[in-house]
Amino acid sequence: MRIIRTIAEIRAAVRDAKRRGQTVGLVPTMGAFHAGHLSLMQQARANNDLVVVSLFVNPTQFGANEDLSSYPRDEERDAALGAAEDVDILFAPEPAEIYPEGFTTTIHIAGITDMLDGASRGAHHFDGVATVVAKLFGIVAPDVAYFGQKDAQQVLVVRRLARDLNLDVRIEACPIVREADGLAMSSRNVYLDADARRQAAALNRALDAAQALADAGERDGAALEAAARAVLADAGITPEYLELRSAEDLQPVARLDGDALLAVAARVGAARLIDNHILHSTS
Ligand code: AMP
Fold it and tell me: Which of 35, 164, 202, 210 could form a disulfide with 235, with the two C-beta atoms 3.0–4.6 Å apart?
C-alpha cells in the first residue's frame, strides 16, 4: 500500500491505473479506523482494480465548538489496517494541500441539509462535507465511491451532489456495522467511558423497539417515535433529534407505508452519537 500526500501524485497514480483499463474505487474517511471503515474497504476491494482510501479530518465540516482538535488520529495504525485490507493507496493529505491559501469555494446543497444533523450541527456541516467530497471526486476521479449508511443523511447529500453536478461516479451505500451489543461503530465511541458505553447501546435498542412496534402493525409515525423515545428515556438519554423521515428526501413521515428512515442523534457521556434504522411496514 502506498501512502500519498499530494494531489499531483494521486492524480498520476489514478491516471496510470485508468490507462491500463482499471476501475477505481474510493473510500472517503476521517481515519481512526474501525470495522465499519474496513467493511467499506472490503466492498471496494471486491469490486475494483484500484482501491483508494482517503484519510482526511476535514476541518470545514466541524463547528467551532465541535471536536476537531480532539478527533482521534492514529495514521500508523490506520495504515496497517488499510494494508491488511489490501488497499492500494492511502491518500492522506495535509489540510493545506486540500485548502490552500485563498480557497473560497463552498458547495451548499439546499433542502435536505437544513434538518436532522444539518439543524443540530449547523449548515456548515454539510457544506463542509459536500465541498470536501466534491474535491475528493475531482482529485481521485473514482468510478465508485463507498459510504456508510450509518451517516444516512450524508449518503443522500452525496447522491444529490453527484446528481446535481453531473459527477461521473456511482455512490454505494454500505450497511451499518455494529458492536456485539448493537452500538453502531464510530470513531467517536472512544470518547465513551464505561458507564456511557453501556448507556450508548440504548440507541440501537430504541430503534429496534420502533421496528418491533411496526412489526406488530403500528403505522402511526408519532407512536413509533414515542416507542423509541421511551427506551432512550429509560436509559437516561434525551435525543437531539429522533425522527421518522422519508428515506429518499428526509421529509417527515406521518404514517409508515413501505420504508422510512428512523434517525437519532444524542449526546451520551462525552460523545455525540448518531444511528438509524430503515423501518419497514410488513403489510
Ligand atoms: P468517518 O471516518 O466517520 O467520516 O466515516 C467514513 C465512512 O465510514 C463514512 O462513509 C461513514 O458513513 C462510514 N462508517 C462510519 N461508521 C460506520 C459503521 N458503523 N458502519 C458502516 N459504515 C460506517
Answer: 202
Predicted TM-score (pTM) of this structure? 0.98
Q: Which of 90, 12, 104 is nearest to 56 (CA)?
A: 90
Same fold, 2-174 and 187-278: no
| Cα separations in angstroms, 109 against 143, 151, 190, 237 | 22, 16, 31, 31
Known catalytic residue at 37: yes
Q: Of 34, 37, 124, 280, which is the active-site residue?
A: 37
* Residue extents of the structural domains in the chain: 2-174, 187-278
Q: Sign of the CA dihedral 46, 47, 52, 54?
A: negative
Q: What is the pLDDT of residues 5-64, one digit of tens each?
A: 999 999 999 999 999 999 999 999 999 999 999 999 999 999 999 999 999 999 999 999
Class in CATH terms, 187-278: alpha beta
Angle 161-59-243 from CA coordinates, rounded to 5°: 55
Q: Which of 151, 176, 203 has the most ligand 1 atoms within 8 A of CB, as the residue to mutate?
A: 151
Please tell me the distance between residue 172's alpha carbon and the centre of ligand 1 in angstroms.
Answer: 12
